[in-house]
């Protein structure tokens, strides 16, 4: 380790600085990371929702099988027994972070075990990874990937249109995918393994949200936006003949093939001047319905229509529920009731004010009714009741004047689906949640139907900052779009987000280390204020004044005793205040845009970082002095001061093209020392010290020993243990991390779309257990009494699998009459698998040969009892299970 004078520049963005794309799964590098002696369990700090759900897909042949897709937070499968959603893409790694943006989902009605996801977040340079179609034959428990030669845009304009991915209901080896960016229509004939362009398709689309945008975002061609099969034109085992495709082209928005995709033509007589967001065919009536908008959404849309196409006669009919002149929104969500021919529903997806609208027809669009109507303006009558008691923050703490209500029925309502097996169940996605009902048909009889959140399990927040005070609530969060919360119970939905002020996105928060009731937060808002203060640990807030010119939140720091605050907002320079922001004074000696933090012991000491220089103030932020140089000058940077110790600072950040890693200063930033055993690091935080340890536990989101993950150190960074596994990676985790000062091992990890991840250690000590290097033969132990032949039974189960990786559990049962006094289990992998991490045991691997050794505490196994351990690993070519196991060199029964 070499002591350096350091400097770095901060650039907090929503895009990881070092993500890179590999068509094949990233190869594991040789690792010197400690082997974890215990396994971590992971869960979300419950918020329930928090982001846009643009797609809900029900399987057409199996009851209660449904999926949801999000724009940045992966995909989910509905668990009917628990009435909740199960995440399916937590295995997506740092390098392929864009695969958490899901542009489309398809569930196979011929074989309900099959599900497909088209993934990729941005079609421009923001996402360095090519898009892919993921395929699963076990409902999303494991996946394989087909990487595409272009990008997909799960978080691009038009992402609510669809579904762009579809499985032929008659011949399920055939799939179609509508591509953006002028890449046309694509087809697979081998169940998603390979894909090729349908060169006969004549129109790749031409609509862009903003052709003048030069970033590649607003000016991207939204392309082919949905594919719909008419299952009546095929039979089981033969390809469907009639296929309909929606195109982002206002003059030519619907095409059809009548020969199984060989030739295509524009359907004559179709509506023009609009984009068809959805195209849904009611096979019982032969009607194809279109919901149309003048834009691609999901935010915009000022005019709209609904049209019906008679696939038998070729006749088109405008069946809009509202005259075009009276619309101020586009139509998006669309579903037909598969059990009640002629019943359909649609949404006014872009009706932001006073509320979204939902329309229902029971006569194929001839007449419609609305979810709510005006009685005498501004009063309205609702056909529904909306109960958000399970997710109370959905009211946003608002008390609007009529005709607005709180909570709202929704906004960005691009997805609405009637359960094909239950006419009473309907779900629809909004910009913040999934709502649903189980007594929908009360609408038709003049009664009221009840809407409640059906969102449990979906955690879609983007996390900007986290804090865990030593008293009060265990966690405070700063979130994009919904502000943030005081989490008093990690397993319960918070009652309300931070209010007074309500911030669209909280960018930074801090508490006073020795007076944790004092909390400050800053964030983005259309108007002032951009800052709030609390004196009761975030339970209640009051607004602060702000310096002139503030346009965004930036970063903020609280003095250790709460006596003052330093704020570095967007649009203005660094400022300080004493008290609670009644007035502000510009700090000197530090540039605008610097990141600021406080010393956690000395209330007069604050730190800053910008433009390649580390800055220190010893007078409460009034003046700063440039100190260390030599730190990263580019990339994302986060740094934190250790609680209770003056001047102990840990600094994480950098970029792949320059300096990158983890540094520590023990002299208040005058000099820093780089950790030689950390290749890359992006965030750092502290938690309670391990039993017997003299230094607080350090947590990092980092690359150590060639492995990307979440790591902890109980010995001030001398050694590190990876505490997540390949099944729990959550793509990009670089924004924030903190341990809990009250619970050893507990860690809170930020994600960009999968909410706040909470890790709990099952052990009480730190460090790891490595195999004994002095053991000449790890497969046998001459000092241990060996069980007799067949005195053991082994079960080996692959519990999760993803492209290039897997997770497995192993259980060894003592079938003999004497207890094991320590054990070593050996096997050989048949498919080139490599273990990357093991818990509840240590291991050695030499080629295909593996030996797993007990962790000490589980070495004694009584007759009839079992010991278990688990591991994650990589595979290439195949992932077949081992066929034989030995315990201390003698054969076990396998089953």
Question: How would you portray this structure in words?
Answer:
With 895 residues, this protein is mainly beta. 0% of the residues lie in helices and 37% in strands. The chain is built from no helices and 71 strands. Strands 1-52-51-50-49 form a 5-stranded antiparallel beta sheet, with no helix packed on it. A 5-stranded mixed beta sheet has the order 29-33-32-31-30, with no helix packed on it. A 5-stranded mixed beta sheet has the order 64-68-61-60-71, with no helix packed on it. InterPro entries: CBD2, CBM2/CBM3_carb-bd_dom_sf, CBM2_carb-bd_dom_sf, CBM2_CS, WD40/YVTN_repeat-like_dom_sf, Xyloglucanase_GH74. Keywords: Carbohydrate metabolism, Glycosidase, Hydrolase, Polysaccharide degradation, Signal. Pfam families: CBM_2.
Oligomerization category of the chains in this entry: single chain
Shape field: globular
Structural class: mainly beta
Q: Count of DSSP helices? A: 0
Distance between the termini: 50 Å
Strand content: 35-45%
Q: Low-confidence segments, ≥5 residues, pLDDT <50?
A: 1-37, 764-788
Order of the strands making up the biggest sheet: 1-52-51-50-49
CA radius of gyration: 29 Å
Helix content range: under 10%
Average pLDDT score:
91
- How many β-strand stretches? 71
Major sheet attributes:
5 strands, antiparallel
Features:
single chain, mainly beta, five-stranded mixed beta sheet, 71 strands, globular
